[in-house]
Amino acid sequence: TKHVIRNIPWTTAKEFTVERGQQQIEELISTWDIHESWLHHAEFLEEEELKDSKRYHYRACWGIPTRRKPIPRATASIYFVIVISKFKPDTIPVEVFYRLESSRLIRRPEQCQFREKWLQDIIENKIVYIERL
Prior knowledge:
Blueprint: H1 18-30, E1 39-49, E2 53-63, E3 76-85, E4 95-100, H2 116-132
Antiparallel strand pairs: 1-2, 2-3, 3-4
GO molecular function: protein kinase A regulatory subunit binding
InterPro entries: AKAP, AKAP_28
Protein name: AKA14 protein
């Protein structure tokens, strides 16, 4: 089946704040086709100053709590980076990237639709690893 890539209109560099970045990450997450049993918590991690840009790092931590296990056995994190160029006009939208905790592949929301299976795979792999210990 073909996945429709859903994205949101990102704020401009001029209007960006750490809080606005977190709100927009939540907006993006709301476009993902994920079962309602998944819960997440998103947080700002740090600001990084580079020669050509400022990068704002966020994390969304996912799990499926249940009545019997309100604290999930394992969680999966998605790391987001919002990039503001120091050379481009501040009237253009910020750039956004994300990656899964288990991967070095960097994805762009406008180029790749998020898949719930990625979260499931991370958690299943962690549980297998925990059970082997």
